[in-house]
Amino acid sequence: RKEVEQDPGPFNVPEGATVAFNCTYSNSASQSFFWYRQDCRKEPKLLMSVYSSGNEDGRFTAQLNRASQYISLLIRDSKLSDSATYLCVVNLISGGGADGLTFGKGTHLIIQP
Amino acid sequence: GAVVSQHPSWVICKSGTSVKIECRSLDFQATTMFWYRQFPKQSLMLMATSNEGSKATYEQGVEKDKFLINHASLTLSTLTVTSAHPEDSSFYICSAADRAYEQYFGPGTRLTVT
C-alpha cells in the first residue's frame, strides 16, 4: 500500500468552476499535512498547510480527517493559472520537522478557458 | 522569503562520469538539507537527509556509495552522482530546513545520462 495516494487525474474543468480532490495517507502517526503545487518541470511550492480544524486561504480550502486518514483540497472560482499538479504531502513530525516529507504522486488539474 | 538555489539547472553527461549538484540556502542557515529525486510521472522520493557536519542518512534502497552527500556548512550541501548511468537520469531536488523546520525547495536539477 502506498503511503500517500492521490487520483492522478487529469481533472479538466472550465474556468470559474469549483473543483475538489482528496488524498489518503497510510501512516496514522503522520503529524503534519500539506498541499504543494508543482508546475511542469519545476520544484514543488507550498500551497498551504492543512490543519485538523480546516483552513482557508482565499479561494483554497483544505480539510483533514484524521479518523479516515484523508486530506482534501477545494478550489473555488478556478483560474487558468491554477492549472498544475497538486501534491499531497505528509510528515511524521509536527510543524514540518527536520524530517523528510512523503509526497503523493500528485493530481493533475487543467483549467480550460 | 527563504531562497534555495541549485546548480546546475540541468546537466547532460556520459555514462560512467560523475556529476556534482550544489544546493545552497541563500538567506538563512539550514540545519538540515534533504535530497529528493523525481522520475517522470512519479512522486518525489526522499533519497537522503543531511545535517551539517555529520554523515547523511540514506533512505532504504539508495546507495550511499553512489550518491555522495556532503553538508560542509550551514548553507551548502552537495550531491555527487558517481559513475552515472542512464537509469540515474532524473529530476533531483534539494530542500533546506531552517530552525523553525520549514522546508524550502530548490529549483531542481535535471540530469540526463547518455
Structure description:
The complex is a heterodimer of chains A (113) and B (114). Chain A is mainly β and 113 residues long. Helix content of chain A is 0%, strand content 51%. Chain A has strands at 4-6, 11-14, 19-25, 32-38, 45-50, 55-57, 60-65, 70-75, 84-91, 102-103, 107-112. In chain A, the strands form two sheets. In chain A, strands 2, 4, 5, 9, 10 and 11 form a six-stranded mixed beta sheet that branches. In chain A, strands 1-3-8-7-6 form a five-stranded antiparallel beta sheet, with no helix packed on it. In chain A, a hairpin with a 6-residue loop joins strand 4 and strand 5. Chain A is globular. Chain A starts with a strand and ends with a strand. The model of chain A has no long low-confidence stretch (mean pLDDT 90). Chain B is mainly beta and 114 residues long. Chain B is built from no helices and eleven strands. Chain B has strands at 4-7, 10-13, 19-25, 32-38, 45-51, 57-58, 67-73, 76-81, 90-97, 103-105, 109-113. In chain B, the strands form two sheets. In chain B, strands 2, 4, 5, 6, 9, 10 and 11 form a seven-stranded mixed beta sheet that branches. In chain B, strands 1-3-8-7 form a four-stranded antiparallel beta sheet, with no helix packed on it. The model of chain B has no long low-confidence stretch (mean pLDDT 91).
